[in-house]
Write a structure and sequence with these properties.
- The complex is a heterodimer of chains A (558) and B (671).
- With 558 residues, chain A is of the alpha+beta class.
- Chain A is 30% helix and 23% strand.
- A six-stranded antiparallel beta sheet of chain A has the order 2-1-5-4-3-6, with helices on both faces.
- In chain A, strand 4 and strand 5 form a beta hairpin.
- Chain A is globular, with a radius of gyration of 23 Å.
- The relative contact order of chain A is 0.11.
- In chain B, strand 34 and strand 35 form a beta hairpin.
- The longest helix of chain B has 31 residues.
- Among the domains of chain B are: 47 residues; 145 residues, no CATH class; 112 residues, Dna Ligase, domain 1 (2-Layer Sandwich).
- Chain B is an alpha+beta fold and 671 residues long.
- The radius of gyration of chain B is 26 Å and the shape is globular.
- The interface between A and B is large, with 91 and 64 residues.
Chain lengths: 558, 671
């Protein structure tokens, strides 16, 4: 069907607005700090075939592949077999999902008896069971990481609410397997609410404009994003470019684990091949392939295109991603995958390093680019489990004309911090002592990298557990075009005047009086330090961003 | 005589009321010294300052000081370990695919941020006493040496107990008596330290600017013999005497849009309408608000240039769709309107100042709803040819003619405003079809009918002089003071009593403040409770009449919240979820007596009987009517253009307009 261009513009903007509203309501009605404060969730509208049409722009990692995660559900439960009240659920990374904590809900949009699309939401759940609250740093397989939900068809009335007021079977199964049901089940409610909004808005649009026009718009919007992506890719010189980036370790003492990317630009399409990437590892650093697609596309979209291109299935079409089975970026079942953000961040870095050769003015240096999941948990003898989970970034990489952003979440994520005053209200077993920028943690350069930061937690009772995963505790974010590296991160426990250094992926039992400090690293610099204007060096010195010694030696760094 | 003067970005508007006589004046703004424009307006209206008994002023001075980072040099003091909170912010990015992202710049330099040893717990108990010796030894000398105009203090948990902040103020005040101090417990006593710190820092940052501005303004007034009341508009839709602004400048931010909504509410009340969707369309943007039973709802927080400000503001959504919004086709072939604007310079192509890109105003000229001879009451000739030329390229790329392209631009501008209306209505669980549309601003009434058709609204109220409703709002604004506090507790049988005790305390304090400002007379009280299900982070405000508190049960309170939650989120209260109170806002209001009727200012323009307008793909002859000559009871059937001094109303075919007894023009769709 040929759409009038104005009607098409209006309808597309309405679909995008509906997806955005879903995202807002997902976050604002959520219960756990990870969803409501950190905003680790996303929402999208899909067409009847499962192609993503519009998304609430929250977390790039989740956004890149909602449509791909949907496909295995659709293969098992075709739209034509769905009834009103049914919805689809998945979190299994080996059936197309990401990691177990990200549970996807897909609600069909019925209009005049037919499914015209799906409302989708995903939330990172605070606890989904498994071997340890929040995150199990010691997991050696998927089963230890939490409850596995294969593609499932669930009926709202029967399986969720239940007929007898006891709750439906699926809902009760979930509730029984999570440590903090008040939060986790509340967050599922928020996902259902977000999807209900999406369904309602799609139905309103179908009623107002007719379902044929809505369908045409959904197809047109994907074509539109594809066109704009292709136009941007066409401007990049053809060729094959190579890049690599490494994790410090597999967490078991392996030494560096390296991701290698070959990015081939041919006309208006791009192929990203991760052949040559190191094999999968025994710890949770493996990345399900859906996450690798998200990372690659997010990097290329950010570097090459205008930020206002709506991200949907059309944006994925010009880009083909491959990774050999059994490698870090395409592991075999049942390898653990909880910390997939780390290896996908290196995939992001490797793709960026590759295209830096083609478009040096558009790229940025490596940032700390490490999602650090930091979890404090405590089983209170009185009130049960108390779980605190925070997601940290670090300093951003610098660009041609700008310093890297200080203390911000990494490019594949976009989590907010939890206010100290909210923690003071919600948690009695620890207290935050400081939260500060880390001077001198930036990579030097004509433009400096962003600063890292640190937070310290005083432990107020015996028995809590700190669990975290991070990276770049020994390595650093490298600079680019002559820029210097950012500082490494670290996690330390101060006990009785002695410092205990934890590994980058670790769990550690805590005592009353301990102080845990997590320090996040800085971003790499862009260009030669000697080319940095003296006024900017002086300004950073006066602000205490860099020390006198660093300022004096600035031009000689690199 | 009562006078309202609203300083906007482009124009300074004045409305005066003297007995039955109303004057309306628009003069160019003078951005470097906005007060000059204000006094120019008085001069242009021929008003002697000595004859003014009540002067209400709204300006963008505070907002611009932040936008342009031209505030005072300030210091910031935080709890030990937390001097960086203004730089750490919330750790997120506003645009997730922007590699060159920069955080909004705080109003203070890092070198000017200091710490004091102290800590208070969430329940207000002291964990670490304030280290007064260190304050005397280190902080005070540093503040003395820094040459600061003001200092902002934000200590952790000061919302729960202000004792350390108060002690610190006393110590600094004794040592450095000239230094202005803003403390977070007084500016915004609510939890979430970054937002409170940002609000406090911005308050310290704009206070000296506002003080300087008001000093100058009052001196000029006094020099001209003014002896009346001088008050200033706030972002919450109420006014306060100018002297009150000497301690609370932050409440004057974004007062312009608030004044417009207040003016719209008062004007609609004359026609007996209290449920409204208001939209104020100006040169670069449109402000939309929803009014329920004569009250616009309040948002607890806003932001300026990305910096959060925790202060009650009228809940207004702004979209980048104004008369100057550019019409363009992006690299994916999609037609777009805004958010970029041609601004005042060069302005729309039809202004003839060198603009070549088409704008919404040019689209109106092409389709005939703005007549080049009648713009601003004939005061500014427009270049119709330039408007047509500007659309040629867009038309060619859309495969249509210039008229088709202009019609497309208008439809898209309408759609942009419709989406803003949906944000304040459907997204908050309100059906816009239950409301009357009230357009104002220079460009509002030109699009009102098409917006109403798109969204299913059947009734439009066009006020007289739509272009100066903000200035009218200043004149009709009540005196309002709102106090928000954090008061977190799970709802139980004691809750209503504890709320009542808080209200009594806030009432005493606020009424004392009113008395000190000389605001006597009957006072009204309002109360909003911010509640959420236990575990959630975002509250929903529920309005409660303070007088009903003694009779209010916990169950009724919880159910009111659950109903509000269901309206917004389509679910609520499942599995016996418990509700908690997080904070409350207590308000004191002194109502003003009603304004006399405001009539349309005559433009005195000679015009033909009809003009050609393109609508629905066809050219029609629209009747031309002088808004000032449309008397009470007169009916004008569409297609028609009702032209006034500050704005034109487009009455499409199928619609008709009638001036009602209150002076508003009521547009209705026939059939």
């Amino acid at each position: 069907m040929q759409l009038d261009p104005v009607e098409y513009a209006i309808l597309s903007q309405s679909v995008i607005a509906a997806a955005r509203e879903m995202g807002v309501k997902l976050i604002r009605s959520a219960y756990s700090t990870i969803l409501r404060e950190a905003r680790d969730g996303s929402a999208a509208l899909l067409d009847a075939a499962g192609g993503t049409v519009a998304q609430a722009e929250l977390i790039p990692m989740q956004l890149g592949s909602i449509g791909r995660v949907f496909q295995p559900c659709a293969a098992m439960f075709p739209a034509a077999t769905l009834e009103e009240g049914d919805f689809l659920v998945i979190n299994d990374p080996y059936s197309g999902g990401q990691h177990l904590q990200d549970v996807f809900f897909f609600h069909p949009v019925f209009f005049e008896g037919a499914v015209i699309g799906f409302a989708a939401s995903v939330a990172h759940h605070l606890d989904i069971g498994g071997g340890s609250p929040g995150l199990n740093a010691g997991a050696r397989d998927l089963y230890a990481e939490g409850l596995i939900i294969p593609p499932m068809k669930v009926n709202m009335a029967r399986d969720w609410y239940g007929a007898d007021g006891q709750g439906g079977g699926f809902q009760r199964l979930l509730r029984a397997n999570v440590r903090v049901p008040q939060q986790t089940m509340g967050d599922f409610d928020a996902q259902i609410a977000a999807n209900a909004i999406g369904v309602l808005r799609m139905q309103e649009l179908a009623r107002r404009y007719g379902v044929a026009k809505l369908r045409a718009t959904m197809a047109g919007l994907q074509d539109y994003s594809e066109r704009r992506m292709r136009a941007a890719i066409s401007a990049v010189p053809d060729g094959t470019y190579h890049g690599e980036a490494s994790l410090d370790t597999d967490g078991l003492g392996s030494g560096k684990v390296t991701v290698r990317a070959a990015v081939t630009v041919a006309g208006d399409g791009i192929t990203v091949d991760f052949a040559g990437t190191d094999p999968q590892v025994g710890t949770n650093l493996n990345a399900p392939f859906a996450s690798v697609i998200s990372a690659s596309v997010s990097c290329l979209k950010a570097a090459l295109t205008s930020p206002d291109i709506p991200f949907n299935d059309g944006s994925l079409r010009p880009i083909t991603v491959t990774a050999p089975p059994g490698c870090l970026l395409n592991p075999r079942h049942p390898a653990p995958v909880r910390a997939r953000m780390l290896s996908t961040s290196r995939a992001w870095n490797a793709v960026m390093m590759a295209i830096a050769q083609a478009v040096p003015e558009k790229v940025i240096a490596q940032g700390y680019d490490t999602t650090t999941a930091f979890c404090l948990s405590w089983l209170s003898p009185v009130s049960g489990w108390s779980v605190y989970l925070e997601v940290y970034g670090g300093g951003y990489g610098a660009g041609l004309g700008n310093d890297g952003c200080d203390a911000v979440d990494n490019p594949l994520s976009n989590c907010s911090n939890t206010p100290v005053e909210a923690m003071d209200q919600d948690f009695s077993f620890f207290r935050v002592l400081d939260y500060a920028l880390r001077p001198d943690s930036c990579g030097s350069g004509a433009r400096r990298g962003g600063l890292g930061f640190s937070r310290s937690y005083a432990i107020l009772v015996d028995g809590p557990l700190v669990s975290h995963y991070s990276d770049r505790f020994t390595g650093q974010a490298s600079g680019i075009f002559g820029g210097g590296p950012g500082a490494s991160g670290r996690c330390e426990v101060l006990r009785d005047g002695k410092v205990i250094s934890l590994r980058s992926q670790d769990s550690f039992g805590l005592q009353r009086g301990d102080v845990v400090t997590i320090s996040l690293g800085g971003g790499g610099g862009y260009g030669k330090p000697a080319e940095r204007p003296a006024a900017l060096v002086a300004h950073d010195l006066a602000d205490g961003v860099i020390s006198a010694a660093r300022a004096e030696a600035w031009a000689a760094q690199g | 005589m009562r006078v309202g003067i609203e300083v906007g970005g482009t124009f300074t508007d004045l409305v005066s009321v003297d007995g039955g006589e109303v004057r309306v004046v628009k003069v160019p703004s003078t951005p470097r010294s906005p007060d000059i424009g204000a006094f120019n307006a008085l001069g242009a209206a021929g008003i002697a300052a000595a004859s003014v008994t009540d002067l209400v002023h709204g300006s963008t001075v505070a907002t611009n000081a932040i936008l342009e980072r031209r505030g005072a040099t300030i210091a910031f003091v935080a709890t030990q370990g937390f001097r960086d909170i203004l730089f750490l912010q919330r750790h997120d990015r506003r645009n997730i695919y922007d590699l060159h992202y920069a955080k909004p710049a705080p109003p203070v330099r890092r070198r000017d941020c200091f710490e004091v040893a102290e800590r208070i717990a969430a329940d207000g108990t002291v964990l670490t006493p304030l280290d007064e010796a260190a304050v005397a030894r280190e902080l005070i000398p540093a503040l003395a040496a820094g040459g600061y105009q003001a200092v902002a203090i934000c200590l952790l948990s000061a919302y729960a107990s202000p004792q350390h902040e108060m002690r610190l103020m006393a110590l600094i005040g004794a040592a450095l008596p000239g230094l202005r101090i803003a403390a977070s417990h007084a500016v915004a006593p609510e939890f979430r330290e970054y937002e409170r710190a940002s609000t406090t820092a911005l308050s310290a940052y704009v206070q000296p600017v506002i003080d300087g501005y008001l000093d100058r303004f009052e001196a000029t007034l006094a020099g001209a013999g003014f002896t009346g009341h001088f008050s200033v508009m706030q972002s919450n839709g109420g006014r306060m005497p100018a002297t009150a602004m000497r301690s609370n400048a932050i409440s004057a931010l974004l007062s312009g849009p608030a004044a417009g909504v207040v003016g719209a509410i008062r004007q609609a009340a004359r026609s007996g309408r209290g449920n409204l969707v208001t939209f104020d369309m100006g040169g670069t943007s449109t402000d939309v608000a929803l009014v329920q039973d004569g009250e616009a709802s309040l948002a607890p927080e806003t932001e300026v240039d990305g910096l959060p400000i925790r202060t009650p503001v009228l809940d207004i959504v702004t979209v980048g769709a104004g008369g100057g919004s550019l019409v363009w086709i992006d690299d994916g072939g999609m037609l777009r309107v805004g958010p970029r604007s041609a601004g005042a310079e060069p302005g729309p192509a039809c202004y003839g100042r060198g603009g070549t890109q088409p704008t919404v105003t040019d689209a109106h000229v092409v389709r005939g709803t703005i007549r080049p001879d009648a713009f601003l009451g004939g005061g500014m000739a427009l270049d119709a040819e330039a408007a047509h030329r500007a659309f040629a390229d867009v038309a060619q790329r859309l495969g249509t003619d210039v008229r088709g392209a202009a019609a497309a631009a208008i439809r898209l501008a309408v759609a942009n405003i419709v989406r803003a209306i949906q944000l304040v209505s459907t997204e908050r669980g309100r059906d816009p079809r239950d409301y009357a549309l009230l357009p104002f601003g220079g460009a509002g009434p030109l699009l009102a009918a098409e917006i109403a058709e798109e969204i299913g609204i059947r009734e439009i109220l066009v006020p007289p002089n739509p272009g100066v409703i903000s200035a009218l709002g200043l004149l009709s604004a009540d005196y309002v003071k709102l106090r928000g506090i954090t008061r977190r507790m799970a709802l139980d049988a004691d809750t209503p009593g504890l709320i009542a005790a808080d209200c009594a305390r806030l009432r005493t304090a606020t009424e004392a403040e009113f008395a000190a400002l000389g605001l006597d007379g009957a006072l009204e009280h309002t109360l909003e409770l911010d509640m959420r299900f236990i575990g959630q982070a975002f509250e929903i405000p529920v309005a409660v009449d303070p007088a009903e508190l003694p009779r209010l049960t916990v169950a009724a309170l919880a159910e009111r919240f659950a109903a509000a939650h269901r309206r917004v989120y389509l679910h609520g209260g499942e599995a016996g979820r418990k509700v908690e109170l997080v904070g409350l806002r207590f308000g004191v209001r002194r109502r003003l007596e009603a304004l006399p009727e405001v009539k349309e200012r005559a433009a005195g323009l000679r015009r033909p009987a009809t003009a050609e307008v393109v609508t629905g793909g066809a050219a029609v002859q629209a009747r031309l009517v002088d808004a000032a000559l449309l008397g009470v009871g007169d009916v004008v059937a569409g297609p028609a253009l009702v032209e006034g001094y500050s704005s034109t109303t487009w009455v499409p075919p199928g619609w008709s307009g009638a001036r009602d007894a209150a002076g508003n023009m009521l547009l209705r769709k026939e059939g």
